Structure formats: C-alpha cells, structure tokens
Predict the structure.
Amino acid sequence: MAWKGLVEHRARVMLAIALVALVVGALLHLSGQASIGDAVWGAAVALLSAELAVEIGRTIVVEHHMGVDTIALVAMLGSLALGQELAGIVVGVMFTGGSALEDVASTRARRELTALVARAPKFAHLRVGDAFEEVPVERVEAGDVVLVRQGEVIPVDGTSTSPEAVIDTSTLTGEPLPVTISTGMPVLSGSANAGQPFEVRADRAAADSAYAALVRLVRHAQTERAPFVRMADRYAGFFLVATVLLAGAAWAVSADPVRALAVVVVATPCPLILAAPIALVSGLSRAARAGIIVKGRGRSRRSGRRGRCCSTRPGP
C-alpha cells in the first residue's frame, strides 16, 4: 500500500527529492565541498530527468502529443552535459513544484467530484396504478409520477404534485437553507427531499435531467483535457524548435555552449506548466463545492434564452 501511494503521488516524491538535493548541495558548497555538492545536484537532476523522460514518452505514445514540459527536460539534460548542475536542479524544483501542486489540487477535486457522481440516484419509486414500484432510474419517462421519500435525491426534473414539500438544493445552488414548494412548482433533479415524502411528475426522462447532465459533464471533465491545455501542448513542438534554434544562434555568436543553455533555461515555460493544469482542476473542485452546474450551449428551460449557464434555484 505504501508503494502504491508513492506511485500515485510521485510528483510530491520528486519535489521532495529535488528540494532535499538543492538544500544538501548548497550546504556542501558552503562547507567547502563544492565537488560533492555538484555531485548531489547532478544525481538529483539525472533522476528527475529520467522520470520526466518516461512521462513525456508515455504522453507521446498514448496521447500522441508533446507537452510543454519537453523544454524542461531539454534544460535539465543540457545542464548535466555542461556541468551546470545548479541550473538543472533549479529547473527541476520549479517543474516538480508545479506537478506536486497539480497533484494536490487533482486529489482534492477527484474526491469532491467523485462524491458528486456517487450521489446520483440509481433507482426511483415509480407510480404504477395505485402502488409504487422501485425501478432503475433510466426507466422513468416524461409524464411518469415518482415518489421521493425523506432524505432521497430527486431523480428527475419535474413538477411537484403534492401540496407541500421541503427541498434541499444545497448541492446544486450552494444555498444551505431548504426551500418549501407547493403543487405545480418545478423541482430539479439532484435536490434532496428534506421533509415528508412527496410526488413529482417528470417533465423529461431521467436520462435528460439536469443532474444526469451534470454527472456526464463531471465524468467528461475528469478525462478530457481543457482547451487551453491542449492549445499549450499543440504549440509546444513549435516553441521547442524555436528555442533550440535561438539557443544554437546564441552558441554560434558567443562560442560558449553555456549561453545556449541559458536560453533554454529562460525559455522553460514553468509558469505555464504551473498555471494551466492547476487552474483547471481547482476550478472543477471549486465548482463542486459551490454547487455550480455548467451546461452546454442550449436553451434554458425557464428563460428561453441561449447561454452556457443557468440558475438552478427552484422558483415559480
């Protein structure tokens, strides 16, 4: 189990190695043992480069694209080749720091989004004649009447047919106070029954409900890369070529290969590596906590206007 945890959070392990190597190497330099300090930095850079090379290779083979982190690998390998271990370990700390922050944000987002998906109802109490039958939620169609018991999650978007019901909409809207509705008022799937059992007439099939759409969106978001991340990776190859050409020009003009390394180190897009993935997963996590439903382009059921978002607060 401990090994599995290390594999799952290898970004944090790599950051710890990079930080320890940076500090130990610096202390050795201060104590007059510069050669040993350089060896410590070099060993750490070699390990970080190997781990990053494996990850880049997997990305190219599996996902068929080259990420912006390729330039970081070039910078670290160049620092090893030219004996500039300090530059390499600094790049390693910057890169692993971004990866570790992404790992922390992703873990938190996955936990909250998984809870959101797990909350989706799987069964509904469908009215059949004068009785109710428990059926898979996929069988509920428009016009069907379902019974929502106390504490259950409402499985469909519909209209209340009971004189009074108390609805907890905190999962959808983030509002902690329950809402009291009466006959004829709309009810959104994903809300919870905070009062006595009541009946809902489905306005659409359960598969087309707002909460079902939210679950599909969450599952898609967990596997799909954001457009701005795809754009960054799309131009990474061009940026890498431009960086190498500029570094070569610097080497040719100065006759010093260290100048070429300086160009590559400066060009390493560490802020981009940090910003893009973390912004995505943190946004998903925040949306899950706040109760925000993001809908695709379409027509709002109540407003009749086109847009990407709509309020989920029940109303008359």
DSSP finds eleven helices and eleven strands in the chain. Residues 164 and 192 are 14 Å apart (CA to CA). The domain at 118-212 is CATH 2.70.150.10 (Calcium-transporting ATPase, cytoplasmic transduction domain A). Residues 85-118 form the longest helix (34 residues).
